[in-house]
Amino acid sequence: MQLKEEFVGKKKVDAKIFRAHFLASIKQSQESKVDDLANKRVGVFVLVVILVGVLAAAIGVRAGVYKKDLIAVAHSTRCLVSNNEVVKEFVRPVFNCELCRNTSRIERIANISRQEFLEKYAYGTVPVVITGAANGWKALDSFSYLYFKNLYTKDVVVMDDIVQGCQFINWGYHFDSIEEVFNMTDAKTKLEPGPGDDSWYVGWADCHPKTSDELRRQIQRPYFLPEESKTSSSEWIFMGWRGPGAFLHIDNVRLPSWQAQISGRKKWIFVPVLECAGICKDKYEVIVEKGDIIILDSNKWFHSTFVLPGDISITIGTEYD
Ligand SMILES: *[C@@H]1O[C@H](CO)[C@@H](O)[C@H](O)[C@H]1NC(C)=O
Ligand SMILES: *[C@@H]1O[C@H](CO)[C@@H](O)[C@H](O)[C@H]1NC(C)=O
Ligand SMILES: *[C@@H]1O[C@H](CO)[C@@H](O)[C@H](O)[C@H]1NC(C)=O
């Protein structure tokens, strides 16, 4: 407490006013938005997992590839399903499986034109990787665990706001908040965990005006996005070491997203929704390298990620329309 007072010092009054505004705006956006995204994601995901499980069992569709994952997760998180999500899942638009009927793999494309991106991929719902699209971004040099630690912990008021107002996902790892992520011992942050060591992977929305201004100086708008498309108001950052990242899930966000791989390498696995079994492949995999940007409609595909050995994986991305 002492430290906090001292640290904030003269800026305290300003900060208080700012904070009041910030919290009010967060509250408002949370009330007007359907609900908290973290909840939403976990809720939808669990619900879909259960529905898919039940449907698959009932009608004997070939869900063999991912049944194991789905069941494992359903068991661990079942209690989080909310009624709201049940309703939403029933109104989810049916995926047009024609879109992936002839898709044998996820493309990795370099140097795509805006026009081609718009025609083939922007809203086409099949994921694509645009290689090297983040090359030249400052983030490639600046982003690291320590960069984010400094960004978030240098101002306790900002950290408090972020803990209270921005969404955080621990993907089953032991962190309860972003504050804990940046409070771990040095040994854990610096070294790549060896086999059997304690790995970790987390994600959070940077929804604070102060930190997102700084973050946006490190990144650029992906060059291939349609000129008129708008990106959403906060970026999502995902960070973690070798090992499982996001578990297999489907989102309930309105828009497609881009995600830039700033450090490390990540394998993505996509599994088509149940209605496409037999039309599309059972599973698609693609590796996203440092400097690549992946485009996906996370609302239309089950997806999971796996951080490959090497550097810490750090990504940043957002939704676009
Ligand atoms: C898929 O491929 C078949 C055979 O090559 C073709 O007849 C069909 O039009 C293709 N469908 C789509 C959606 O591209
Ligand atoms: C990218 O494509 C444009 C036009 O198609 C071309 O002029 C340019 O040389 C290409 N750049 C690279 C690095 O391939
Ligand atoms: C940070 O770590 C210290 C020492 O391990 C602990 O006492 C403190 O409660 C931790 N704070 C948070 C927010 O996790």
From TrEMBL:
What is the protein's name according to its record?
A: Cupin-like domain-containing protein
Pfam families tied to this protein = Cupin_8
Occurrences of domain Cupin-like (ranges): 115-272
Q: Keyword set for this entry?
A: Membrane, Transmembrane, Transmembrane helix
Molecular function terms, GO-annotated:
2-oxoglutarate-dependent dioxygenase activity
Q: Which domain of life is it from?
A: Eukaryota
Q: Where are the transmembrane segments?
A: 42-61
Residue ranges that the Swiss-Prot or TrEMBL entry lists as coiled coil: none
* Originating organism: Ridgeia piscesae (Tubeworm)
Q: Which PANTHER family match?
A: ARGININE DEMETHYLASE AND LYSYL-HYDROXYLASE JMJD (PTHR12480), CUPIN-LIKE DOMAIN-CONTAINING PROTEIN (PTHR12480:SF19)
